Amino acid sequence: MKKLLISIIITFPALVGFAQSTNWDNVKYNGIRTMGISYKYLNLTNPADKSNQLGTTYFFPEFDFVKMNLSAGAWSWSYRNKLPGDFIGSGIQLVFTGEMPYYKYRPNATWIHNFIGWWNIAKNVKINDELAVAVGGHIGDYYLDYSLAPDVYYNPHGFYAGIGPVVMVDYLLPGAMVVHFESSLAYGQYLADGDGFGVYPAPLISNTMLELRTNSKVFVGLEYVTFFNRGDDPFRGQRIELKAGFRFKK
């Protein structure tokens, strides 16, 4: 599945045509809120403890909301919440296997998750016929875990709020396809279930996504979420997603 998604990303332009587009007016969903429904390959690992880590892989549905406003001075935003898709995927696992591996405790397994969601909002500061650059802010919640045994864990551990800057870049391709990139760097503020305020250095959380969007509703994407551990514990978890799906007006 992973190799298939990578092949789709590489060959995608050939699947949708090369009719030349001259400006952002040709992008069908410019200025319209859309909902994305996709199928994803999810991988969770901790590269900082390679000899002991238990890497985990899942295939789950995915949902998100996006509004691209590709005009001078306009605001764009995105909202992603992993909870619904991961819960639905785990429910399907329960029906067919009798267990929910995603929510089952396993030592040396990474967990990077959210409950409320991740918001990015940015204003266009540079735009021409094929490139748009926007800057703004990110806010979200993150649950981080890498446990050796119940109540024995590496830090940073627990529930964090993250806030920081975000940049969005859109590049117009032939056929009114858009390569969309957005990346945030958030300061994580501890909220619950860890070592407490100020005891362990708060992490810096990096949240990046890259998508190829088309007028035919089809899109493919890559997400990478990780954090910079500012302490000494061997925990630098990462959440990698490859996905393909459709976007609809919402």
Structure description:
- The chain has 250 residues and is mainly beta.
- 12% of the residues lie in helices and 52% in strands.
- The protein contains 2 helices and 12 strands; from the N terminus they run αβββαβββββββββ.
- A 10-stranded antiparallel β-barrel has the order 1-2-3-5-6-8-9-10-11-12.
- Strand 8 and strand 9 (178-192) form a beta hairpin.
- This is Lipid A 3-O-deacylase (PagL).
- Residues 1-19 form the signal peptide.
- Keywords: Signal.
- It comes from Belliella alkalica.
What is shown here, in short?
The chain has 250 residues and is mainly beta.
Task: Report how far the terminal alpha carbons are from each other.
Answer: 29 Å
Q: Order of strands in the sheet with the most strands?
A: 1-2-3-5-6-8-9-10-11-12
Q: Helical proportion?
A: 10-25%
Secondary structure tally, helices? 2
What is the element string, with H for helices and E for strands? HEEEHEEEEEEEEE
The strand count comes to 12
Oligomer: single chain
Low-confidence stretches: 13-21
Write out key terms for the chains shown.
Lipid A 3-O-deacylase (PagL), 12% helix, 12 strands, signal, 250 residues
Produce the secondary structure layout:
Blueprint: H1 2-16, E1 33-45, E2 56-67, E3 75-80, H2 82-97, E4 110-113, E5 118-127, E6 131-149, E7 152-153, E8 158-172, E9 178-192, E10 204-213, E11 218-228, E12 238-249
Antiparallel strand pairs: 1-2, 1-12, 2-3, 3-5, 4-6, 5-6, 6-7, 6-8, 8-9, 9-10, 10-11, 11-12
